[in-house]
Write a structure and sequence with these properties.
Elements: E1 2-7, H1 11-26, E2 30-31, E3 40-45, H2 50-66, E4 71-76, H3 77-80, E5 92-94, H4 97-108, E6 125-132, H5 143-146, E7 151-152, H6 155-167, E8 172-177, E9 184-185, E10 188-189, H7 190-197, E11 205-208, H8 218-226, E12 233-235, H9 243-248, H10 255-266, E13 273-280, H11 287-297, E14 304-309, H12 327-350, E15 356-365, E16 368-373, E17 378-381, E18 391-402, E19 407-412
Parallel strand pairs: 1-2, 1-3, 3-4, 4-5, 6-8, 8-11, 12-13, 13-14, 17-19
Antiparallel strand pairs: 6-7, 9-10, 15-16, 15-18, 16-17, 18-19
């Protein structure tokens, strides 16, 4: 049987989709890419915003239209959200995460039990879900209501999966979780996990996907800069840029806490780049709040900022808040913030021109090699051959390059 897996949403969703793909492949099925004829389509949905829900509905309808004979299986967070308005399936079924694996095994796999399947040859970065669930209940976020089962994965299982993936050529492991910093398996926290898994021999890199500001400790930072196997880059979501907004969002820190954390990172003996998330258009966002956002975006503290336009989610505390501005104002603020982020990224990346950085080369497009540096900016290299693919190389940065979809750095080996 030929199948494909379509994924929306976060890195945890991507990891879970990889597990579905491996299970089906181990069960005697053939994975095909989207656009080719297949018998089974698994769609892993996301419900973090109303736009994500809409994309899920569109993907389902498109799959039914383009593959009318295929069985369609829907899973993911939209399935747990009664407000997602998922369409009825003509030929398929909805499976929640608890029933997904055993049902797929029973209905679509020939083998009695799953076995390990090698990574695709081109895949050199692997998402590793080590933690799931969240109980922070930020006022704008629906995810704690959808992923209530909080758990952390046994370090021995994580190491086993890493060893298997290393044998298949994986070079970078991205540790993911719904609230990664809360990792706790028995008496082992996130720092303890990192100390354990970095003892695995071999040439590889570990990257943390996202960690809450209140969970970044000096001890964790010291270990990151002292351990070459850990990428010196952190994604630390801020969300609101004033104490008023942070309190209304029910975040667990103040702006002073966050700025002091950035100061601590800036004074480390090794460069650790920081990226963040900021919400634009939270219902109570005043002109003063937005001006504070622009000031912070212009400060040069972040390598990159992921901006999110606030999305009302039924069932959250913020859903009951009335906006203090018009839709036109919200759109205008988002446009201004995006322009500011772009300008700031140019200035930030200029600091790396002339420096030598480690880059994992992932792909070749039209004779040009692309990868991500240890600090997680996109790098392209012209003067090389295929021997550098799927390997770490030291690259001297020469200039900034820009396309309609990204800003990165160009370098030479």
């Amino acid at each position: 049987m030929r199948f494909t897996v379509l994924t929306l949403g976060c890195k945890v969703n991507q990891y879970e989709s990889d597990q579905i793909k491996h299970q089906l492949s181990a069960g005697g099925n053939l994975f095909t890419k989207i656009g080719t004829e297949c018998d089974l389509i698994v769609i892993n949905t996301c419900s973090v915003t109303h736009i994500a829900d809409r994309k899920g509905r569109q993907l389902i309808r498109k799959a039914e239209k383009n593959s009318p004979k295929a069985t369609i299986v829907i899973t993911g967070c939209s399935l747990e959200n009664s407000s997602s308005n998922l369409p009825k399936l003509k030929n398929g079924l909805y499976l929640n995460k608890m029933d997904l694996s055993k049902t797929i095994q029973a209905m679509f796999c020939n083998n009695k039990s799953p076995k390990f399947v090698a990574e695709e040859e081109s895949k050199n970065r692997k998402f590793m879900m080590v933690q799931n669930g969240c109980n922070y209940f930020c006022s704008y976020c629906l995810i704690p209501y959808l992923r209530r089962n909080i758990y952390s994965v046994n370090p021995s299982e994580i190491k086993k999966e890493m060893l298997q993936s290393l044998q298949c050529g994986v070079q970078e492991f991205v540790l993911t979780g719904i609230n990664l910093g809360t990792y706790q398996f028995e008496n082992i926290n996130l720092l303890g996990l990192l100390k354990d898994i970095t003892t695995i021999p071999g040439k590889y890199q570990i990257r943390l996907s996202s960690i809450e500001p209140n969970l970044v400790t000096p001890e964790l930072l010291d270990f990151i800069i002292a351990t070459p196997k850990i990428a010196p880059q952190l994604h630390i979501p801020l969300q609101g840029t004033t104490d008023k907004l942070l309190k209304e969002m029910k975040r667990r820190y103040t702006m002073l806490d966050y700025i002091e954390l950035l100061d601590l990172i800036d004074h480390l003996p090794k460069t650790v780049t920081v990226t963040t998330d900021i919400i634009v258009g939270f219902p109570t966002e005043t002109d003063a709040d937005f001006n504070a956002t622009i000031a912070l975006l212009s400060s040069g503290r972040f390598m990159d900022v992921h901006l999110f336009s606030y999305s009302p989610r039924n069932g959250t505390l913020a859903y009951e808040m009335s906006p203090v501005f018009s839709d036109e104002t919200k759109h205008s603020r988002m446009t201004q913030a995006l322009e500011t982020v772009k300008e700031n990224k140019h200035r930030f990346l200029e600091k790396f021109i002339g420096k030598t950085v480690s880059v994992l080369i992932e792909e070749k497009k039209q004779g040009v090699y692309f990868g991500y540096s240890e600090n997680y900016f996109r790098v392209k290299i012209n003067n090389c051959d295929d021997s550098i693919l799927n390997s770490f190389v030291n690259c001297t940065i020469t200039r900034i390059f820009e396309t309609p979809k990204m800003i990165g750095l160009e370098g030479q080996v």
